[in-house]
Amino acid sequence: MKLKVTLLKSPIGRLQKQIDTVKALGLRKISQSVIREDIPAVRGQIFVVKHMVKVEEINE
Fold first, then answer.
1. Phi and psi torsions of 22, nearest 5°
2. Global pTM value
3. What is the pLDDT of residue 60?
């Protein structure tokens, strides 16, 4: 299974850890989406910025 992560809010003015996490997920612009593997490391990154992103599960 994979996860589709979409950036909904800007990381400007957020904690540096949250800004770095958004970049690590590969998100740059609002409304941009990326597909990531559903592994514990990615789930942890999403948890850090859960208030800024939307997550959808994709079955392949």
1. -60, -45
2. 0.91
3. 76
